[in-house]
UniProtKB/TrEMBL annotation:
This is Pseudouridine synthase RsuA/RluA-like domain-containing protein. GO terms for biological process: enzyme-directed rRNA pseudouridine synthesis. The lineage of its organism: Eukaryota, Viridiplantae, Streptophyta, Embryophyta, Tracheophyta. It catalyses: a uridine in RNA = a pseudouridine in RNA. It comes from Oryza barthii. The keyword Plastid does not apply.
Length: 346
């Protein structure tokens, strides 16, 4: 009996049952504060004498102003070669190991429960909720999908009781979804499964950069990703193929730059299909199939063709993943297939 059926029969509380379509749910509530984080550097001398405060205030000036780094040093948050350093004017030696220990902080709200939609000995398909980050970054170092996967006690089958490291339990996501995006997220249970699934995803990015027939590219891919989004304006064509490269561009005030459509970027391919034209609102509901996975690809590509995401629906909905095995068996998403023409942008 499934968990949902058990809830319907009154055997478990309804509030503890997973939503329809889920096998089960898991998740550990987040602690109030995370465990902090350590940033490691190896000092390389550029010729001139460098002090501890000079290194941090110049290398990480976007993290804190000069007074902020002085306070961190005097508070004992930095070690040099394993010893706490409290003198900002300490002279650094070539090859010294520097560690900045960031104090624990309260991370912003994020859901902790994950619904399992599919599971076998090699992988898990999760329904990632909006608001939960996949991997640690920025303010979210603990409240992530990765942390929940590592906290769960995964029961591996007896056939997996192997001394081979690649066959031992190692649950990790194999691709990313934006923190605000909800939908299917594939996770590998072992290093071996991760390597194979990651290779499937990499094929999509490789094919996106080749000048090949669209049919050939679709046949070559083993994993397909579909998203649903609401965009501004009315798309005239039922299908739109966008192949504009995406890359980092310099932007005032942003040290790392911003991702945008640019000719010097990496190959990217998005196939857009119209689901519904909402003329009264001047919006179009679309399905987007991405053949690559560049940062912010859907937002950038849709803005590039003059149909940016609607402001009130910035969070995308990832509907499904299609996986095709070596025997060409597959399970696919349902979306309109009729077309009056395909527009291409590159």
């Amino acid at each position: 009996m499934t968990a949902a059926a058990a809830a319907a029969a009154g055997e478990i509380p309804a509030e503890d049952a997973p939503p329809p379509g889920a096998l089960y749910s898991f998740g550990t509530p987040w602690p109030e504060f995370n465990g902090g984080i350590s940033y490691i550097d190896t000092f390389r001398c550029a010729g001139a004498t460098t002090t501890l405060i000079e290194f941090y205030s110049t290398s990480y000036k976007s993290s804190a102003p000069l007074p902020g780094w002085i306070k961190r040093i005097r508070d004992g948050q930095i070690t040099v070669d394993g010893e706490v350093a409290t003198d900002p004017d300490m002279i650094l030696r070539e090859g010294s190991k520097l560690v900045y220990h960031r104090l624990p902080w309260q991370e912003p709200f994020a859901p902790h429960l994950l619904d399992v939609l599919y599971e076998d000995d090699d992988m898990i398909a999760l329904n990632k909720p909006s608001g939960l980050q996949v991997l640690p970054k920025g303010l979210f170092q603990q409240r992530t999908v990765l942390a929940q996967l590592q906290l769960k006690d995964w029961k591996m089958p007896s056939s997996f009781c192997s001394k081979r490291k690649d066959a031992q339990s190692h649950p990790v996501p194999v691709h990313r979804l934006g923190r605000g995006t909800s939908g299917l997220l594939l996770c590998a249970k072992t290093k071996l499964a991760k390597a194979q699934l990651a290779a499937y995803f990499a094929e999509g990015a490789t094919n996106a950069g080749k000048s090949r027939d669209e049919t050939d590219i679709c046949k070559a891919r083993k994993i397909s990703k579909f998203y649903r989004a609401l965009v501004t304006g009315i798309l005239e064509n039922d299908e739109v193929m966008i192949t504009q490269p995406i890359g980092l561009v310099r932007y005032p005030g942003v040290a790392e730059g911003l991702y945008a459509a640019c000719s010097s970027g990496k190959p990217a391919m998005s196939k857009v299909r119209v689901l519904e034209r909402l003329k009264i609102h001047n919006h179009t509901l679309i399905m987007v199939e991405i053949h690559s996975g560049r940062p912010h690809q859907i937002r950038i590509h849709l803005a590039y063709i003059g149909h940016p995401l609607v402001e009130v629906m910035r969070d995308l909905c990832n509907l499904s993943l299609e996986i095709v095995d070596d025997q060409n068996h597959s399970s696919s998403a349902t979306y309109p297939t009729d077309s009056r023409g395909t527009a291409r942008y590159s």
